[in-house]
């Protein structure tokens, strides 16, 4: 008699199941625009030259692999602060930020969620509607009640900022507000600087706890530009949680490299917070993995490799923008003024919310082998000069 008869089958992650169907699909013209990975023009995951050089260096200088400290590598943590907050930033120089290295951005969210649950047990968490599904899973898994704040207006395909602001303004003090720093997943719609300028004082004055998720630094407009909102929050006096990930911008998904930073009022508080973040890590997975952080540290430490990384990131960003422009042009050439695809150009980062219905997404997949997520989210980096017209034609057939 099995002990586990009450354990239900796992329905699987919808996006990963879609990848499996894609791999089984025998049609040579098939196009995957579902999973959130950056692919190059040839449809491959890139190995960045800076990362290759770092890997070669580490391979030639193999070190014993002891445990890292609970909080991760010290140099890596300092380099992360420079990258996220800006090297000369007052909060960095003052030593009032507690940063721990985590297994990817997901690990950062989980450590942050557990820490908040322990020290702010009554807090509830407010997350954009829609959001990356795992936000809900991670915060609910940490024992929180989660709620959505208005973000995307499906009828117009635009950000509903006024309703977002009104909702956030009405939250009880001490509520956690999860914000995407840039390149919002799944909509591709970000707040303008002016909108951040209206939101940030509300967060500070209402005594809310901002938790910024920055999974795509460098994919929108640039490393500093994409971190602008994080820095504006800190400049306004916010005490904030910031999760950042190197999965996408270093193309190091499987190494699990990221970090969590908590901005405090002063260095002594940051020391206490760091100590309790270490305790949170200890209770979860004891200490982070070494290799990915060593790679990132090696690149960020070397001015030449860091410049090469920045240039590669600029190329990735430019390729995504080029694909946005090409898809827009192909659709506009057909529809003219009958249908507006301007959102393809104004959205930021890897994802675009197309406004296609679930039935239209099914049609694209079944009739044309073009795979999108059922919400209509399209991963722009699955496009290439070779397939963009094919995808445009498929969309045209489905919409006409
Ligand atoms: N936040 C968002 C918004 C994401 O899209 C992702 C990755 N899909 C993550 C966090 C997690 O990143 P990681 O793979 O580094 O755990």
Automatic annotation (TrEMBL):
<dbReference type="Pfam" id="PF00155">
    <property type="entry name" value="Aminotran_1_2"/>
</dbReference>
<dbReference type="InterPro" id="IPR015422">
    <property type="entry name" value="PyrdxlP-dep_Trfase_small"/>
</dbReference>
<dbReference type="GO" id="GO:0005829">
    <property type="term" value="C:cytosol"/>
</dbReference>
<dbReference type="GO" id="GO:0033585">
    <property type="term" value="P:L-phenylalanine biosynthetic process from chorismate via phenylpyruvate"/>
</dbReference>
<dbReference type="GO" id="GO:0042802">
    <property type="term" value="F:identical protein binding"/>
</dbReference>
<keyword id="KW-0032">Aminotransferase</keyword>
<dbReference type="InterPro" id="IPR015424">
    <property type="entry name" value="PyrdxlP-dep_Trfase"/>
</dbReference>
<protein>
    <recommendedName>
        <fullName>Aminotransferase</fullName>
        <ecNumber>2.6.1.-</ecNumber>
    </recommendedName>
</protein>
<comment type="subunit">
    <text>Homodimer.</text>
</comment>
<dbReference type="InterPro" id="IPR004839">
    <property type="entry name" value="Aminotransferase_I/II_large"/>
</dbReference>
<comment type="similarity">
    <text>Belongs to the class-I pyridoxal-phosphate-dependent aminotransferase family.</text>
</comment>
<keyword id="KW-0808">Transferase</keyword>
<dbReference type="GO" id="GO:0030170">
    <property type="term" value="F:pyridoxal phosphate binding"/>
</dbReference>
<dbReference type="InterPro" id="IPR000796">
    <property type="entry name" value="Asp_trans"/>
</dbReference>
<dbReference type="InterPro" id="IPR015421">
    <property type="entry name" value="PyrdxlP-dep_Trfase_major"/>
</dbReference>
<feature type="domain" description="Aminotransferase class I/classII large">
    <location>
        <begin position="29"/>
        <end position="395"/>
    </location>
</feature>
<dbReference type="GO" id="GO:0004838">
    <property type="term" value="F:L-tyrosine-2-oxoglutarate transaminase activity"/>
</dbReference>
<dbReference type="InterPro" id="IPR004838">
    <property type="entry name" value="NHTrfase_class1_PyrdxlP-BS"/>
</dbReference>
<keyword id="KW-0663">Pyridoxal phosphate</keyword>
């Amino acid at each position: 008699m099995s002990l586990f008869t009450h354990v239900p089958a796992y329905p699987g992650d919808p996006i990963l199941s879609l990848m499996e169907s894609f791999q089984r699909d025998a049609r040579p013209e098939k196009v995957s625009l579902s999973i959130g990975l950056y692919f190059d023009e040839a449809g491959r995951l890139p190995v960045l030259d800076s990362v290759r050089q770092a890997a070669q260096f580490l391979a030639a200088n193999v070190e014993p692999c002891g445990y890292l400290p609970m909080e991760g590598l010290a140099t890596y943590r300092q380099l992360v602060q420079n990258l996220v907050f800006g090297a000369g930033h007052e909060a960095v120089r003052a030593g009032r930020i507690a940063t721990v290295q985590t297994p990817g951005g997901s690990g950062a969210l989980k450590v942050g969620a557990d820490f908040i649950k322990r020290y702010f047990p009554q807090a509830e968490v407010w997350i954009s509607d829609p959001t990356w599904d795992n936000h809900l899973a991670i915060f609910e898994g940490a024992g929180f009640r989660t709620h959505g704040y208005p973000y995307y207006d499906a009828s117009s395909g635009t950000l509903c900022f006024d309703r977002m602001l009104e909702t956030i303004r009405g939250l009880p003090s001490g509520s956690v507000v999860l914000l995407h720093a840039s390149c919002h997943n799944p909509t591709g719609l970000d707040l303008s600087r002016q909108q951040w300028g209206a939101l940030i004082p509300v967060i500070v004055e209402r005594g809310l706890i901002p938790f910024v998720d920055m999974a795509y630094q460098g994919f929108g407009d640039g490393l500093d530009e994409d971190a602008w909102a994080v820095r504006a929050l800190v400049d306004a006096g916010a005490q904030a949680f910031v999760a950042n990930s190197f999965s996408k911008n270093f193309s190091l998904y499987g190494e699990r490299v990221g970090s969590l930073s908590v901005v405090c009022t002063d260095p002594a508080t940051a020391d206490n917070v760091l100590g309790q973040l270490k305790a949170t890590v200890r209770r979860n997975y004891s200490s982070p993995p070494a290799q990915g952080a060593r790679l990132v540290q090696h690149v960020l430490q070397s001015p030449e490799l860091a410049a090469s990384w920045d240039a590669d990131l600029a190329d990735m960003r430019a390729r995504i923008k080029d694909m946005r422009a090409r898809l827009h042009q192909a659709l506009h050439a057909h529809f003219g003024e009958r249908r507006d695809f301007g959102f393809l150009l104004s959205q930021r980062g890897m994802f675009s919310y197309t406004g296609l219905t679930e039935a239209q997404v099914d049609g694209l997949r079944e009739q044309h082998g073009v795979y999108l997520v059922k919400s209509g989210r399209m991963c722009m980096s699955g496009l290439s000069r070779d397939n963009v017209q094919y995808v445009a034609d498929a969309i045209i057939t489905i919409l006409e």
